[in-house]
Amino acid sequence: MKSQTTQQARAVHDVSCGKVLRERALGRAGSPDPVPAALTAKIAAEVEDHCGHRRLKCRRLARGWTVAQAVAAAHQLVEDEHLAKVGMSERSWKDWEAGVLPNPDYQDLLCRLFCTGPVELGFAHDYSPAPEADEADPLWSGDRPDGTLPEGDAARTDAECTEVEATKRRDAVKLAGLAMAAPATAAQILQQAATEAMEFTQQAESTSLGSGTLDHLDLAVTEFNHAYSLKPPKAVFDAVMDYRRKVNSLLKAKHTHQQERELLAFAGWLSELLAWLAHDLGDARTGLAFATDAFVHGQQAGHGQLCAWAMDASASINLYEQRPAKARNAALRGLTEAPADHPLTVRLHAQAARAAAADGDTEGFTTAFHSAEDAHRLLPPRSPRRFGMDVMPLADYALTSYPATSFIWLGQAEQARRHAEHALATYEAAPEASRSPSREAIARIDLAIAHAQLGDPDDAVALGHQALGSARVVDSVRHRAGDLTSFLTRRYPRQSAVEGLREHLAALDAAAHPALPAAPSGA
After folding, report:
1. Fewest C-beta in 10 Å: which of 77, 124, 317, 436?
2. Which own/partner contact pairs does 376-381 have at CB distance under 8 Å and 24+ positions apart?
3. Torsions phi, psi of 229, nearest 5?
4. Greater pLDDT, 85 or 219
5. 0.85 exceeded by pTM
6. Where are the domains of the chain?
7. Residues contacting residue 416 through CB under 8 Å, at least 6 positions apart
């Protein structure tokens, strides 16, 4: 088997060429199922020799796997053999196939997956003497001692690998000028060029990131997003902020261009989460600053969807700060970045509708909300995921809870009650892992305000207490509860039950924002 260095010095074929080789090998072997390991190894060797891929990629192509299928197979192996959980992703697999060396744990897992050793996957070198010529066993050689394809097969395969010929033509043009130079001069030029090429490659691959750093960040961001609705926002904020600082340090260190884009995206995702956490902690200024930071890093990374999520956060924070025009602009800005067939587009249209309602613009609300409904109908059957979580519920919630709040602001109590009841039922029916206590609490408050507007203060107070008894009473919940108690106090000033709800809210506010200790006398 040729060395990896020699292998990568020539042009590389398209993956379709490897697929053709595999199909022919299986056909000649009688299409065995399962494919024997020895046959897979022979296919991989021929793909490497003929197509020029690195050995890990050759093994994957010999199995007939896409990158996604290979990653899924690795995770299944971990589960089946009760191995330590890993954060392997398609991105890390592509990095390994491009020449990045996995850490020892991942090397061991990949060797298990392909039932082979590190040398055969290109992770180590074999310094044993080369076998004699008569020991070779080329997979496609037939009667040909050089191991090439039969003439008919070779012609068809080369037709499918036109990239090789195009590369040869480009190389011929580059070398044409050397023919005019004296032999000694041409040799010197080529020798210097080879030295420079090595320097170019070393510079492009130079990085201070460990092989598992990006995988670790991927896993950390995933865990933080899962913790968002389950743990106290202050604890999550501190942990996420620590990682945001670490990513900032990594961006200042040495890394490749590809790694820089990924680090920029991780920085943006962490800032997007920090925006929501700061909002939950009642600090709108910090929340908006992090939403802007997430948007900017998303732009730098070329990640439009991240930019759109950042503007979703900005729209919500501005709404709670009673800045409907800014909220509307943020939602519209997000829509320029969001994919048309993504649930986020539904949510951003609903954000724009909610902002219009907060501004008293009934027509603007109706237009934007109809756009949200239209976008929802056009969503594909399979819902996308964000850090392992289904994002479709965010679109569904936006179509129920946002109009409930909007109709309250527009003074349409019956419409508000209907949408709030639907929103609450939707939240309560969600799987336990997807439940959001704070969103449920806000839906109860919307329903409470609708009941109060319809002349039923007792139900309004009861729903208010239920909302304030939530497991996650963040600032947005207390803010909306303040709207409820203010309305009840104005409409029903003599109701003692209303005073009890106000005291409940005041106690929660005091716990969330403890008073500073009194200054010593004479200070």
Report:
1. 124
2. 376/343, 376/346, 378/340, 378/341, 379/341, 379/342, 379/343, 379/346, 380/341
3. -90, 0
4. 219
5. no
6. 4-160, 226-511
7. 404, 405, 406, 407, 408, 446, 449, 450, 453
